């Protein structure tokens, strides 16, 4: 029988971003309406949509060989899995998320110890219990089915909640008193599967290509011409690590430079390159980068 | 300070149907975008959107005086609350839901006992544990974050899942082997709140009006004229319990009948009334019925 | 085996209006996504969605016992079916449609005979051929797969096309030179099925209820009070055929009138009734009317 | 030539509510996509969509015989028109709107006089200028093309802005320091047109029917039966002005009552009626009411 | 007068994909709402939207000089046209479609001959008749107005239907017993028009550019650097036909390679290139390719 | 305190196109729902959404340092601002707009002078008044709140209206009798701000990058190989100003050319390049171009 890698794709808020990432990395995954078994254009992979919260559990048990999920849920489930690579591709921000302990703005709680004897609502029950236990603070941790940030003060005294920008907490007039954990998406693998040579190479290739797609997202290609005498002045304006490919023009009157730039610095670099005498400056989009 | 009733409205799949029911019953509730505190046109009520799964917990603790939730979640939480009335107004079907134990169609499991030693995935963890414990069947019950019906056989051996028509189970090739519970929406109240005279009357009035709106939904008003000699023949075609209001016409040539009919029988009753000699048959819609 | 009536529902532009009509008449039909076999809340009926163009063919052959389709397609297919009742419930206008012979505004064609030797594009090929043959006008009739009204003069010389208001013809700068047929929706039945007593009664009841729902759509109920001396003046303002139900008020000071009015005259009648002394004028909506 | 009434319908935020009101009143107006000349099912009326801000200007000049617009814009334009009736049918709230003078929450302005020498942004330029002139407060009034409430303090010192609930002002952290005007929608007529007998009657009939539709919107019909001895107790629970129609039942055992109630009191009245012994209580919807 | 090419664009399911293809090829075509005459940014071309089923007929007659349609409809109409090029750009799959003879899964028909005397429903009436005639199998071929695949067994015994993936046939429980034809989109031309030198060149240029855009769609550009000694090892990992452009770096320490790759092999090639020592691997998107 | 540039973004029809332009130029601006203060990923810039009509007024007064608006509104307000650069990036057409004087098709007005004594409706009141005053034509210019083109002849005699393609004027049967002004979007700056060195450089860099993004939009990158002997023939087919970068291939058998082409000529150039012997022709997209 042919080799197959059972791969878990996170269902829900990360799903579309994950499918888009795989497409940029070279795999088209088709989510067929309500089916939980999307098709993929690679006969060596079998996909399944699984909630991020449950992914680590199923990877650990071997129902899946590998999967993408947040580090937070690996910790919540205390799953014994292989961590292959971190991947930050969240659609909106590319930031990591934080799980924080938050209380009403006008409450008298300013540090975790102030919550002794209180009710904490959270989706991350086990992790939160271990956190408070490690500090010897007696609290009641209740599972929250959602909308956790509207619960204080009516339905809970404090919450342990995930936040990216803090805007939802602010909108609900909550104050952060402690950051419990930072988390980002990871590609994880079952330990037995990762010991198998074929699966190990397949997983590593997927990791390489996902990272190549992520690396391309924030970068652009830059081409420019420079007269012979200006080469040093122009290259001095490029970021230190960019090491351009320099080719001599066939007419002998200068050089063509080709380099890769971080997208965020382009708006500052191009005006300087032009001032230094570069001509024919052209930026083009990239789809994969392996430096 | 004025009296206020703290009322929990179920957030999620039942929310729109619930707001529509309250509107038909005489209260307009405005869900303001993402706020969890909808406004209501009754200064004596304060609303909060709460997940059905958590409603009974908060009514029991007194954070809410009353709320609507399924009987299933009252049982899951084993909450000590006052049950005021059952309300069946689910948008699609008006049926009750069932929680069933289901296994893959082609699995070798045919009764609960066959699942000894197996993994059961469900959202109703505590109820399921008590069910299997009461039968002395040792199983592992795992909390499912959703999409429970796609888990067998890969991620679980069996599930305890809610179903209304069974079509989702069938689509996932699952077979029901036991019905664990039937459940319907209920208006529940905090016991202390219900002991307060003002709150008790307010809750009872809400119960009366919600039931009046539900009763109207499946019924219609019927008016018809009948000549003096045909009165008995025509009334004989009306359902036994309909007891029409009969008024004599001022010209003395017959009677005007006014009655309420179950909407489902109208398509059979009207042809018979016409055959029996009724004239001027008119059906009109109702918005509340208190028989 | 239980009796079953096989009923064809027209798929396409009339589908939603037809399902709405059946709902008002007392039958709920659920079109399940892409299925062509909608469910209906009547165990004695089996529905199938069929294109209006093909309905008469399948009713004639007996694959369906009854169905709704336009008279135009009965004629196009020259189907030998029982015509039960005409039903005008088209969502926008309640008008009948016309099939017309149309030519470009600035063409030299003014009567059918002018088109001898020309190309006619139409969806109604057989009917059009018979029409021109009956007049001994030699033309080429070509089947048009749609967008017939944009074909002249580039792709055809004239068209036979359906129109309700003529606005699409006008927008395409076409001129009507002859009305070939007026058509409206009909309930038709297979002749053998209609000879069966059970099916005949079932079809007749459906016909009665559909007509009751259509009759209600353009009518409203009117209640009003009138003092004893003004009864004649007030009733004189009611349309001739409305024959109100008159009940004496228990206080002996006048009468309560109840009647049914055509919705289109209400805006003229109410001001006159008020001027004649009627009080407490109330209009309420109707859902079925069998006069 | 036939008589025609040229009627202006307010384009924009009130348009859908106005078309719905006319439909309930008995006239169907069809807005044909982007056309400004909607069709109406009354050959005696010709409609035109006109911005509320310009309506009074065109009614005054006679380009329109009548139209619906806010009183605010009549005053802004100081138009000399006939005011026929006020109409409060705004879809959301049925309230009137207010034009207020508002300043940033944390500004040092607390009364109009504090704004001497400042910049006021508003859509209601002329009215605002007259207001400040009448108080001898020198200010600069600038026309605002929209989003007026975000201008202070960056782009203006204060604003004159319309508000219904005040929520938009609050969201922009503005404080109301004066209410300049309350305004509601009015049916206005050109004075010459209103002097013409035919047009006057037509306008008055439209006014009567629009009011009949508005009156029905907040009311419902109520039917109930009451045993002979309980008639007084039951009627005592009805609002003072409801004066029910009482008919004796033909079996002599009681009365049938029919009345109209304000929708807002139904939820309080029905429980009391039931407690007083009423049976067969039925509420039905109304579409027009002329008391 | 200037030269003009009359070009038919297929209306319907292929329309959006065709407009997108032309845009990638260098022509912007604007479909103006409901107009059948889209504008194009090339004064030498005049476009018309025509149903694929009718395209070949109008190209043959000369109403159009060229057009895009499926080979199936050229065969159905037996049109005498010039076939310029095949184009496979269907949005979903890039596959060709098949017209198949299909019967109910559980029917007793297993080869075309089994259908003697039966009813065949299809949109491709003439082609199907010729097919069965060529095999001397007597059948009745009926024109189907759509939804052909739901007709067996109720409304037809078998169908001739188009399919891309077979999923719709499977969903309707049909079994394929014969593939009658494979078909793909073609650019076709009127024979007289194609004999004209100007039109011939214009059509050929369109053909070249459409193919250039299609060729680019499944390919990407790849840049990479390689140290002098590793050139052979790295190029050995490139697909045989890719023939990279190799330029010496100006610092003399290696080479820059530029090549075009089939998008489907990138995910396998990049890991191998990296393993072979390539650095600075960059993939960028292409919009046209003429090899 | 850090330097900040206050930048106005035009709200309304140009908003999305402007945000897209800034994104292509290197700045991400996030419009947060209804907020008028979008965030931008550059700590040196503070954005505000302002109507194009008011932009010049606020830039002139210094509430904003710079902003984008049409030249028409700079002229209407006669604002004294620095004009930095013209930017034509309108989503649909890249054309400039025109303000025209238009009258009903069948009116007797053929030149501005014919409108003496008439009513002109327009959004551009001050500019129009100055235009007619400069020609000594006495007219009444009325402010139009929108839908200006439907006003003649009922509500105005002529209009001064903006048009891009003239299609809306044609649809309303209006005839242009004079073009009053051509206008395009401009980046404008407050004169005091532009005198500040830091703000001047920041504004100039924004101008450079916006122009780089606009320049890229209508251009593409082209790569091709050419054998040694064909270099002249191939380069002869390139547009005069394209000056390709020519690199010798490492195998000595020819050259690799890289150039930038205007997107509109590609469909003509590629067929000629191929005919001249170019191979491996590849077009790729660009995101910025500074020539």
From TrEMBL, chains A, B, C, D, E, F:
Keywords: Amino-acid biosynthesis, ATP-binding, Cytoplasm, Glycosyltransferase, Histidine biosynthesis, Magnesium, Metal-binding, Nucleotide-binding, Transferase. The gene is hisG. Catalyzes the condensation of ATP and 5-phosphoribose 1-diphosphate to form N'-(5'-phosphoribosyl)-ATP (PR-ATP). Has a crucial role in the pathway because the rate of histidine biosynthesis seems to be controlled primarily by regulation of HisG enzymatic activity. This is ATP phosphoribosyltransferase. Belongs to the ATP phosphoribosyltransferase family. Long subfamily. SUPFAM superfamilies: GlnB-like, Periplasmic binding protein-like II. Residues 216-288 form the Histidine biosynthesis HisG C-terminal domain. One of its GO terms (molecular function) is ATP binding. Its main location: cytoplasm. Its cofactor is Mg(2+). One of its GO terms (biological process) is L-histidine biosynthetic process. It holds the Pfam family HisG_C. Feedback inhibited by histidine. It comes from the Bacteria. It comes from Granulicella rosea. GO terms for cellular component: cytoplasm. Its EC number is 2.4.2.17. It catalyses: 1-(5-phospho-beta-D-ribosyl)-ATP + diphosphate = 5-phospho-alpha-D-ribose 1-diphosphate + ATP. Pathway: Amino-acid biosynthesis; L-histidine biosynthesis; L-histidine from 5-phospho-alpha-D-ribose 1-diphosphate: step 1/9. It is found in: Cytoplasm. Residues 51-210 form the ATP phosphoribosyltransferase catalytic domain.
């Amino acid at each position: 029988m042919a080799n197959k890698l059972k791969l878990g794709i996170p269902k829900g808020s990360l799903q579309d971003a994950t499918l888009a990432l795989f497409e940029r990395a070279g795999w088209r995954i088709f989510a067929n309406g309500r089916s939980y078994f999307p098709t993929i254009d690679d006969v060596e992979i079998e996909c399944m949509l699984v909630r991020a919260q449950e992914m680590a559990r199923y990877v650990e048990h071997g129902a899946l060989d590998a999967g993408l999920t947040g580090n937070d849920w690996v910790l919540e489930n205390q799953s014994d899995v292989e961590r292959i690579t971190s991947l930050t591709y969240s659609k909106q921000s590319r930031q990591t998320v934080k799980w924080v302990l938050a209380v009403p703005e006008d409450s008298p709680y300013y540090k975790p110890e102030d919550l002794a004897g209180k009710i904490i609502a959270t989706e991350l029950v086990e992790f939160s219990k271990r956190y408070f236990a490690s500090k010897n603070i007696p609290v009641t941790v209740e599972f929250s089915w959602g909308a956790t940030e509207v619960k204080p003060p009516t339905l809970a005294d404090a919450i342990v909640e995930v936040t990216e920008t803090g805007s939802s907490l602010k909108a609900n007039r909550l104050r952060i008193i402690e950051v419990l954990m930072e988390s980002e998406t990871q590609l994880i693998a079952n330990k037995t599967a990762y010991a198998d040579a074929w699966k190990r190479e397949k997983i590593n290739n997927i990791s390489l290509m996902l990272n190549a797609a992520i690396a391309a997202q924030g970068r652009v290609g830059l081409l420019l011409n420079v007269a012979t005498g200006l080469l040093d002045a122009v290259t001095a304006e490029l970021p230190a690590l960019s090491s351009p490919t320099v080719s001599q023009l066939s007419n002998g009157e200068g050089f063509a430079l080709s380099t890769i730039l971080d997208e965020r610095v382009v708006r500052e670099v191009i005006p300087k390159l032009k001032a230094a005498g570069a001509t024919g400056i052209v930026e083009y989009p990239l789809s994969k980068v392996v430096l």
